[in-house]
Amino acid sequence: NQVRRHAIAGVAAATPPPYTFDPGEEPGAVFGENVFSLSVMQKRLPKGVYKSVLATIEKSVALDPAVADAVASAMKDWALEKGATHYAHVFYPLTGLTAEKHDSFLDPVGDGTALASFSGKTLIQGEPDASSFPNGGLRNTFEARGYTGWDVMSPAYVLENPNGNTLCIPTIFISMTGDALDHKTPVLRSQQAMATQARRVLELFGHADPDNVVAYCGPEQEYFLVDRHFFDARPDLINAGRTLFGAKPPKGQEFDDHYFGAIPERVLAFMCDTERELFKLGIPAKTRHNEVAPGQFEVAPMFERANEASDHQQLTMTTFRAVAKKHGMECLFHEKPFEGVNGSGKHVNFSIGNSELGSLLVPGDTPHDNAQFLVFCAAVIRMVHLYGGLLRASVASASNDHRLGANEAPPAIISIFLGDQLADVFDQVAKGGATRSKEKGTLVIGVDTLPDLTKDAGDRNRTSPFAFTGNRFEFRAPGSNQTVAAPMVVLNTIMAEALDHCATALETAVAAGTDFNEAVQQLLADIIADHGAVIFNGNGYSDEWPVEAEQRGLKNLRTTVDALPELVAPEAIELFGRYGVFSEREMHSRYEIGLEQYVLSVTVEANLTLEMGRTVVLPAAVRYQTELATNVAALKGAGVEADLSDLEAVSALVSDLRSSLKALGDLLGHEHDDDALVTATTIRDQVLPAMAAVRTASDALEAVVADDLWPLPTYQEMLYLL
Ligand code: ADP
Ligand code: MG
């Protein structure tokens, strides 16, 4: 087959792009070079203005609009020095992608020339046409206006491009009515809600006027790299980001020889290049390694404040895509690009704290600190138990459905792993709380019988969706292609609820004359009694776990269609409303958009399956069938006995392929129901199985059709030729 031969030849001839670094450059010399950072602001802004901006960033003091002009002017001068010709408000619509609208700095002046200008007003607010972004019924098209608003907390940066650089300003994106149309607005709202409740708990533990508590996020990004020649020869990769056809390679990942193995030369060059680009943007890329599947890799940055981490994560994906192209490869972020080998996730490492107190999820040096730590941990146990369904919904997508529960990623059941030490401590708390005694061996919080808690994470559990790892929790269900903002919003909000609960319980008990330590002991015991069912330290991949989880009353929301309705359950609407994160309208819009995206993405895949099945796979199979038939006829003509078995086998598969294509085509011919949930359910229960049937027939053909006739690059080629 011409296409495949050409692709293979192209890979063999590929040369890496010329080295872009100055070999004398010190590692890290470029860090933050293109960021309008605090230190740049300190140098360039009048003192009073700088102090005001700093107070907003560090202490969450409301931004003083009077400073905007001064900031804008300094930002413009800095950006022009960096070669920027345009500026862009960058926002994060509900497609999960990043959007930007570029405007030139130049304004014509009366005499026929133009001057660079950039006012505080333009910095603070923009007005892109919002009609083509999903809004889930929040806006009529005749009210297409949407507003972007400067997020002071996330630094502006200059993005380099051979065609001219752009000053990028991270912004929120809202409708004329103030409804959030993006992922950033709720991150900021939920951050504030969480901080308010965390402060109450800290004050109870004797911290007078503690610094603002923030959520931290360290996202680990998994991805695949494939050579562009193969990518270009696969319409499914181009249009759906995953292979809709492809038989398992003779050598899969069963040897475990790729994980943490030596990084291939070409990939290493790519990694160095991406790291340098990320460094320029102030993104602290730290860890890089091979992942489990062949062709699969991971990058993890140093954790940052969630809002910034989330913007940086989006920028990381954009950068990876661009640099991969430069290196003649394609970077795949789809959760399951290849059937039968591991998919990709994006673990969200989550903690809360501030620079004064550090992470509040680290045991301290004294029993008192440990009591505080245990309260924050207990809050996490409560939130995951009460709102596991929302966590599941926050990572629901058609593509992530291929991964969750597939014995490589955590199951769709949201449980929590504490590790031996912490599980044991809470076990003791439960006993102590039950008897309320101070018997020997029973842990009573806040007095010196509390055992020393070591800061070691203890053992690991790769099968848990939500695991304590020593100073943070690791939420492992997010998919590689998703924004971390959605899970962060849920994490912050349910943390706010749990901390609110803890603070109220402690305040009430103390007001009633209970000793504080006893009140803490009681609170912890109550939480364990009420929510201990969510703690699971066993094997999440085992067949017994779903059965046990059901007995424990834990939800098993297997698919997106099961999970999304969690967003519009009355408790969820009440919760997000109470903490000012989402209005009921906004929750409904997110639910609608989630369903819409599910339907759209599967429909695109189904149409592609049909088209590729009919125009790529079937013709190849028929050609081979003809070849076999010609051979049989020729043998018969020559008077030789012909073996019909190959022809019969291929003919049977061709007929399977034809009938499965017909069935899929019939399904796709139907009109969609008006109700999005009904449509999504049909898609899940009928269209996905119909696509799978086409694939089964095609993959079986791939195993028998002559290799020179097979039109699509094979798994073997895509996964191993880099
Ligand atoms: P592992 O493979 O052990 O899970 P990685 O080094 O791949 O670890 O990634 C761990 C991620 O967790 C990094 O992004 C790291 O910065 C982040 N992290 C570490 N400590 C914290 C913390 N206190 N809060 C949030 N994230 C953290
Ligand atoms: Mg990891």
TrEMBL record:
<dbReference type="InterPro" id="IPR008146">
    <property type="entry name" value="Gln_synth_cat_dom"/>
</dbReference>
<feature type="domain" description="GS catalytic">
    <location>
        <begin position="194"/>
        <end position="617"/>
    </location>
</feature>
<dbReference type="InterPro" id="IPR022147">
    <property type="entry name" value="GSIII_N"/>
</dbReference>
<protein>
    <submittedName>
        <fullName>Glutamine synthetase type III</fullName>
    </submittedName>
</protein>
<dbReference type="Pfam" id="PF12437">
    <property type="entry name" value="GSIII_N"/>
</dbReference>
<dbReference type="InterPro" id="IPR008147">
    <property type="entry name" value="Gln_synt_N"/>
</dbReference>
<dbReference type="Pfam" id="PF00120">
    <property type="entry name" value="Gln-synt_C"/>
</dbReference>
<dbReference type="InterPro" id="IPR027303">
    <property type="entry name" value="Gln_synth_gly_rich_site"/>
</dbReference>
<dbReference type="InterPro" id="IPR052725">
    <property type="entry name" value="GS_Type-3"/>
</dbReference>
<comment type="similarity">
    <text>Belongs to the glutamine synthetase family.</text>
</comment>
<dbReference type="InterPro" id="IPR014746">
    <property type="entry name" value="Gln_synth/guanido_kin_cat_dom"/>
</dbReference>
<dbReference type="InterPro" id="IPR040577">
    <property type="entry name" value="Gln-synt_C"/>
</dbReference>
<dbReference type="Pfam" id="PF18318">
    <property type="entry name" value="Gln-synt_C-ter"/>
</dbReference>
<dbReference type="GO" id="GO:0006542">
    <property type="term" value="P:glutamine biosynthetic process"/>
</dbReference>
<feature type="domain" description="GS beta-grasp">
    <location>
        <begin position="85"/>
        <end position="178"/>
    </location>
</feature>
<dbReference type="GO" id="GO:0004356">
    <property type="term" value="F:glutamine synthetase activity"/>
</dbReference>
